[in-house]
């Protein structure tokens, strides 16, 4: 079972205490954007086999949204971090690079 | 290819079964094919089969990373039904169900299609209304389903508990010609027929890249070398996003794990398929006597082919309430597959931004039942450029907001 650490309240808990929220760091497109951009924002997903940045909510705990870096191929969680950021922080990237030297980086 | 028949069995019985031949060839890839299908699961093999049978295109290779039928084709719960609400879904699933009826004769391979009947239980007022609506829609679509009351459910399924306590059975949607088939045999039967038409099925050959030039497909790079093609069909279910990235586009798909498990074999006790979507579980009895159980998907992206334990617990707990007799059963095996979920829970059978590349994916949790119809429509799409079965399932529907929303409409389990 997946175990996550909530960066907001510090609780380490099993996945049943959290609710998954899909891909993180989506760039939002609203009124005025093109159809392609809006479609991409709503539906197109990276869905990588490997390092994935995703949203979670501590549903049965503090209730806060946060982000996680996880390997979808091994279920290894590299780090969890607060949601108030538009891209993964440098220390999270460094942690992933240390464990996955071949990883091509966040894009 | 030697045909399988009663006489063949009798003949081989007389000579110590030394005359059986391999069901399909295992050739090395050639330099070039007209059509390459990536993925030798049910959908990929069916696509190849109908390309040859209906459209006369036999210069086809089916490329498979692992072994034939080793992905979701060998990991599902083998349920076949076509009681969908929306017209495009009903059309393709009913086409598939109808093809299953005589698939064994068509392929000369016993796929053990067993139209034993399928029940979808209504356990809340909302669900009852939803299924009655589906029955009415099915009547207009020419699909044979009916609504039956709780006592008829009890008569069909004596082991069921219709009195609750939490979710009493208020009735059920019955599709009499729904049922099950032998999942491996579907893949094997199609593979044998494809090989017989001269198609190459190349196993243990991983695709590592897709070569395009000027927005047109040129070929693929594989662990067995470069192979050129005019048309490329990507039929790889959970790994569709990985293949799409190689070809340079993104898909509206997320891959998640879906699980199933079976009990120890017991004497025949239930001769229909029962789906209980409110409590999130479904069950049928295999010909070996095992109770085959499936439940819900995990909510997070996953490529590991194993799911989270709490889903097993949740579904088994729900089914024990519905079928008290299974409470003492031991579970024998549990496994997971990677399913490709789209935003509207309907599949994608479509051209792509790259000319010559087609995708058949997004079947999510319900792909097995659709195999023949999916292959039939996909073959037509590749050979003719469009197909009445697949026209509504294009990638462009996401941009146009023209969804085929089965996630709430059909009351499917996920």
Structural notes for this entry:
The complex is a heterodimer of chains A (107) and B (414). With 107 residues, chain A is an alpha+beta fold. Chain A has one domain: 2-Layer Sandwich (Folate-binding fold). Helices cover 17% and strands 29% of the residues of chain A. Chain A has helices spanning 35-42, 90-99, and strands at residues 3-5, 12-14, 19-23, 51-57, 65-71, 77-82. In chain A, strands 3-4-5-6 form a four-stranded antiparallel beta sheet, covered by helices on one side. Chain A has a two-stranded antiparallel ribbon with strand order 1-2. In chain A, strand 1 (3-5) and strand 2 (12-14) form a beta hairpin. The relative contact order of chain B is 0.19. In chain B, strands 1, 2, 8, 9, 10, 11, 17 and 18 form an eight-stranded mixed beta sheet that branches. By secondary structure, chain B is α/β, with parallel strands linked by helices. Chain B has helices at residues 6-14, 42-55, 87-101, 103-107, 125-141, 150-156, 183-196, 240-247, 309-322, 371-384, 397-400, 406-409; strands at 32-38, 60-63, 79-80, 118-122, 146-148, 171-175, 179-180, 200-202, 207-213, 216-222, 225-234, 253-263, 273-276, 281-285, 291-297, 331-342, 348-351, 357-361. Chain B folds into two domains: 27-109 and 182-251 and 344-409, FAD/NAD(P)-binding domain (3-Layer(bba) Sandwich), CATH 3.50.50; 118-177 and 255-342, D-Amino Acid Oxidase, subunit A, domain 2 (D-Amino Acid Oxidase, Chain A, domain 2, 2-Layer Sandwich), CATH 3.30.9. Residues 409-414 of chain B have low confidence and may be disordered. Chain B contains twelve helices and 18 strands. The interface between A and B is medium-sized, with 27 and 23 residues. Chain B: It is found in: Cytoplasm. Chain B: Its cofactor is FAD; FMN. Chain B: It catalyses: sarcosine + O2 + H2O = formaldehyde + glycine + H2O2; sarcosine + (6S)-5,6,7,8-tetrahydrofolate + O2 = (6R)-5,10-methylene-5,6,7,8-tetrahydrofolate + glycine + H2O2.
């Amino acid at each position: 079972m997946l175990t996550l650490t909530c960066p907001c309240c510090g609780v380490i808990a099993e996945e049943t205490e959290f609710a998954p929220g899909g891909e993180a760091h989506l760039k939002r497109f609203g009124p005025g954007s093109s159809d392609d951009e809006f479609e991409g924002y709503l539906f197109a997903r990276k869905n990588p086999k490997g390092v994935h940045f995703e949203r979670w909510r501590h549903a049965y705990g503090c209730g806060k949204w946060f982000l996680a870096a996880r390997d979808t191929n091994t279920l290894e969680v590299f780090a969890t971090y607060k949601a108030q950021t538009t891209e993964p922080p440098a220390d999270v990237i460094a942690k992933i690079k240390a464990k996955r030297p071949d990883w091509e980086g966040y894009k | 290819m030697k045909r399988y028949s009663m006489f063949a069995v009798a003949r081989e019985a007389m000579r110590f079964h030394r005359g059986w031949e391999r069901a399909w060839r295992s050739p090395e890839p050639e330099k070039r094919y007209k059509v390459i299908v990536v993925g030798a699961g049910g959908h990929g093999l069916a696509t190849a089969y109908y390309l040859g049978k209906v459209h006369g295109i036999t210069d086809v290779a089916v490329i498979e990373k692992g072994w034939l039928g080793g992905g979701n084709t060998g990991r599902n719960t083998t349920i076949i039904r076509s009681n969908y609400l929306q017209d495009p879904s009903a059309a393709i699933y009913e086409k598939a169900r109808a093809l299953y009826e005589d698939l064994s004769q068509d392929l000369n391979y016993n796929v053990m299609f067993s139209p034993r009947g399928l029940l979808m239980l209504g356990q809340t007022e909302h669900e009852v209304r939803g299924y009655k609506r589906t029955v009415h829609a099915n009547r207009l679509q020419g699909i044979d389903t009916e609504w039956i009351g709780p006592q008829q459910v009890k008569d069909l399924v004596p082991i069921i508990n219709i009195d609750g306590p939490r979710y009493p059975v208020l009735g059920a949607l019955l599709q009499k010609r729904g049922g099950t088939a032998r999942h491996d045999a579907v893949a094997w039967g199609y593979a044998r027929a494809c090989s017989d038409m001269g198609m190459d099925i190349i196993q243990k050959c991983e695709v590592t890249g897709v070569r395009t030039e000027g927005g047109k497909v040129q070929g693929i790079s594989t662990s067995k070398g470069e192979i050129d093609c005019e048309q490329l069909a990507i039929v790889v279910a959970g790994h569709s996003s990985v293949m799409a990235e190689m070809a340079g586009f993104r898909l509206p798909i997320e891959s998640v794990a879906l699980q199933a498990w079976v009990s120890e074999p017991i004497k025949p006790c239930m001769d229909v398929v029962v789906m209980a979507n409110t409590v999130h579980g479904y069950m049928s009895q295999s010909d070996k006597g095992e109770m085959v159980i499936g439940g819900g998907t995990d909510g997070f992206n996953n490529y590991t082919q194993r799911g989270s334990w709490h889903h097993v617990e949740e579904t088994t707990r729900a089914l024990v309430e519905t079928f008290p007799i299974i409470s003492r059963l031991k579970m024998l095996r549990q496994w997971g597959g990677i399913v490709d979920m789209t935003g509207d829970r309907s599949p994608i059978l479509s051209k792509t931004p790259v000319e010559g590349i087609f995708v058949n994916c997004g079947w999510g949790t319900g792909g097995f039942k659709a195999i023949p119809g999916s292959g039939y429509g996909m073959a037509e799409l590749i050979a003719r450029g469009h197909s009445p079965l697949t026209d509504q399932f294009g990638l462009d529907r996401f941009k146009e907001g023209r969804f085929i929303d089965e996630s709430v409409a059909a009351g499917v389990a996920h």
